[in-house]
């Protein structure tokens, strides 16, 4: 008997994509939501039906932090990221926006909220930021 790890299932479309690459998760969600070959439960969901799961996952992230469990935190952050990808996928299917738009929106917001870091003049010190 060997202690070999069980084989991991192949990713849809391109098994060569690194599982640490966000594109792998986007492809998994696209496959789950495929009306022809996806998961019936995932296909049936909408924004309102998965909203409670999104909230639950955020609480589970906070719980892992409170317990100081990095192993649980990495898992729960993945679950929360899945919720973001799930919402973005449904929005893409509706023609509203896609995951890259979510990324662009948060990058733009973070730059706008941190002019002390991203300003061309080199930014401000910590006391100026507090004001």
TrEMBL record:
A single GO molecular-function term is: nucleoside triphosphate diphosphatase activity
Has UniProt tagged this entry with the keyword rRNA processing?
no
Report the domain of life of the source organism.
Bacteria
Q: Which Gene3D superfamilies is this protein grouped with? A: MazG-like
- Domain NTP pyrophosphohydrolase MazG-like: start-end pairs: 45-118
Give GO terms for biological process: dATP catabolic process; dGTP catabolic process; dTTP catabolic process; dUTP catabolic process; response to stress; TTP catabolic process; UTP catabolic process
The protein's matches in Pfam families, at most eight in alphabetical order, are given as: MazG (PF03819)
Q: What is this protein called?
A: Nucleoside triphosphate pyrophosphohydrolase
Say which species the protein is native to: Tistrella mobilis
Q: What does the record give as the organism's lineage?
A: Bacteria, Pseudomonadati, Pseudomonadota, Alphaproteobacteria, Geminicoccales
